[in-house]
Amino acid sequence: MRTIGLIGGMSWESSAEYYRLLNELVRERLGGLHSARCVLHSVDFADIEELQAAGEWERAGELLADAAKGLEAAGAELLLICTNTMHKVAGQVEAAVSVPLLHLGDATADAVRAAGLGRVGLLGTAFTMEQDFYRDRLAGHGLDVIVPDAEGRALVHRVIYEELCLGVVREESRTAYQEVIAALVAAGAEGVILGCTEIELLIGAGDSPVPVFPTTRLHAQAAVDAALR
C-alpha cells in the first residue's frame, strides 16, 4: 500500500471525512484490521480564506506547495488536495513535488462519464462555480457544465462558508440547496456535482431527483485505487 499525502484543513470538517473514508475504503478492500497509510498537513483555513478573498492565489499556492513538499518528505507517495476550490493552484503544487497529484476534477469527471452522463450541474464555492479552472477541467473530459444563477450561487457559497465549514448543518439550508438543484435539473442537468468537499455534509443522493456526485468520496476512492494498485 502506498502512503497517501493529504493537504487538508480547508476546512477540517471535510478533511475529517477524507480520513474516515480512506480508512473505511481500505478496510473494505483488505479486511481485518487494515487501515490507510496516510500523512496529513492541515493548514489554518483562516489564512487560506483571507488569500482567497483577496485574490492572492499565487501566495495561497505557495503555502500549499510547501505543504506538499513536507508531505513528500514525510513519505507520501501520492498527494490529494482535500478541497475543490484550491485545485485552482494544483499546477503550483504539482510543480513542487516529484510524486503524483490526484486531481479531484479528474476523479469526478471519470465518475460522471462512467454513469453515462454528459450535462451536469455544478455546486461549489463561488470561486469553483464562476472561475474557469474547475469547469474547464471537467469540460476537458467532454462534460457540459452548468451552474446556478447569481442568486443560487450566492446562496450555495454562503452556506458553505458560514455554516458547513463551521460544522453547522441546517434543514432550511438543505431545502434551499434542493431548490437550487431543481433549477439545475430544469435547465437540463442530468446529474449534479457536489463540487465542494463540505456539501456532502448537507446533501445526499436522496436530496436530488438526479444522481449526485460526491467529490470527497470520489476523490478518496481514487486515492485508495491508486494506493493499492
Automatic annotation (TrEMBL):
It comes from the Bacteria. This is Aspartate/glutamate racemase family protein.
